[in-house]
Design a protein that fits this description.
Strand content: 15-25%
Number of helices: 10
Number of strands: 10
CATH architecture: Alpha-Beta Barrel
Structural class: alpha/beta
Shape: globular
C-alpha cells in the first residue's frame, strides 16, 4: 500500500465508525404530574384544576394524573369543560386516582366497592382518561393476607370487566395496608386474571430496597408515580435517582407516563423545580 492509499484508508475510518456505531437506546416515556402534589391547595380551593392544567402546560409536562378527590363536581358539564381546557393547553388527562379499597370481606361490601369503581370509571371516561388508580385497602380484621388478596382480586376482576368495556385499565397502587409491599400488590393483579388490570407503581412507597422492589413491579406497571425519595436497603429514605428509575422502566418494557408525586410541604417552591428535573430526565431517555 502506497502513501496515498494509506491516507485514503485512514480518512475513511471515522466515517465507517459512524455508520456502525449503535445509537443510545431510546424509550417511550412521558412526563406528568400527580394532582395529589397540590392536595392542600386543591382542598382549600386556592388552586383549581384549570389552574393546574395551565401550570403543567407552562412547565412542558405532557399530562395530569387527576386525583379526583377535589373535583368540585362530576357533572357532565364540568367534566366536559375540564377536558376542553386540557385539550386547549396540550395536556392529557390520562389517569383518575380514586378512593376504591378493594379488599372487603363480605359480598355486600364487595358490591359497594364495585359500584364505586363503576361510578369513577364513568368519570374517567368523560375526561378521556384511559387509566384509573385504585387501592388494595387494609387487611380486614381477623383475615389472613391470602384471604384479603383473594377478596381484593375478586372486586378488581369484576371492576375490570366494566372498565375494560370502556377501554380503561385499573391499576392497583402499592401504597398501604394489603398493598404496602410489592409481593401482595402483584399477587392481587395476578389473581384478577384480566388484561385490564395492572400495578400503579409508586417508586417512593416501598419500605425497603426501593430499587430492587420497584424492579419487580415493572412487568405489571400500567402507570407510574415518581417521588423525590426512595427507600434504601435499611429502609432509610434517600434522594431518588430518577435517571436510574427511568432506565429501569424503559429497559423493562414500560411505555407511558412517569409522573411526579410531591409529598413535601412547600409545593409552590419545590414542584416547579422538580417538574423541570423530571421533564429533562424523561426527555433524555425518550424517543
Amino acid at each position: 500500500m502506497n502513501r496515498r492509499q494509506l491516507i485514503t484508508t485512514l480518512a475513511a475510518v471515522p466515517a465507517a465508525s459512524q455508520l456502525t456505531a449503535q445509537p443510545a437506546k431510546k424509550f417511550h416515556l412521558r412526563a406528568g404530574l400527580v394532582a395529589y402534589s397540590y392536595r392542600k391547595e386543591l382542598a382549600a380551593k386556592s388552586l383549581s384544576y384549570e389552574d393546574l392544567i395551565r401550570r403543567i402546560a407552562d412547565w412542558g409536562l405532557d399530562g395530569l394524573d387527576c386525583t379526583v378527590y377535589w373535583f368540585p363536581d362530576t357533572s357532565a358539564e364540568y367534566l366536559a369543560s375540564l377536558r376542553k381546557t386540557a385539550y386547549r393547553n396540550g395536556v392529557q388527562l390520562y389517569n383518575a386516582g380514586v378512593r376504591v379499597h378493594l379488599s372487603q370481606p363480605t359480598a355486600e361490601l364487595q358490591r359497594a366497592e364495585f359500584d364505586n369503581i363503576r361510578k369513577w370509571v364513568d368519570v374517567a371516561d368523560r375526561i378521556g382518561a384511559s387509566h384509573m388508580r385504585v387501592f388494595g385497602g387494609e387487611v380486614p380484621k381477623g383475615a389472613s393476607e391470602s384471604q384479603a388478596i383473594a377478596w381484593a382480586a375478586e372486586v378488581l376482576k369484576r371492576g375490570a370487566e366494566y372498565a375494560g368495556g370502556k377501554g380503561i385499565t385499573l391499576g392497583v397502587e402499592n401504597d398501604y395496608g394489603l398493598t404496602t409491599d410489592a409481593g401482595p400488590t402483584i399477587e392481587v393483579v395476578k389473581q384478577a386474571m384480566s388484561p385490564w388490570v395492572g400495578v400503579n407503581a409508586d417508586s417512593g412507597n416501598l419500605r425497603t430496597n426501593g430499587y430492587a422492589n420497584f424492579a419487580t413491579l415493572i412487568p405489571y406497571a400500567t402507570n407510574v408515580h415518581m417521588k423525590a425519595e426512595v427507600s434504601g436497603a435499611n429502609g432509610k429514605k434517600e434522594a431518588a435517582d430518577w435517571n436510574r428509575l427511568l432506565g429501569m422502566l424503559g429497559s423493562g418494557g414500560y411505555k407511558g407516563y412517569a409522573a411526579l408525586e410531591y409529598e413535601g410541604n412547600d409545593a409552590d417552591a419545590d414542584i416547579p423545580r422538580l417538574a423541570a428535573d423530571l421533564r429533562a430526565a424523561v426527555r433524555k431517555v425518550s424517543a
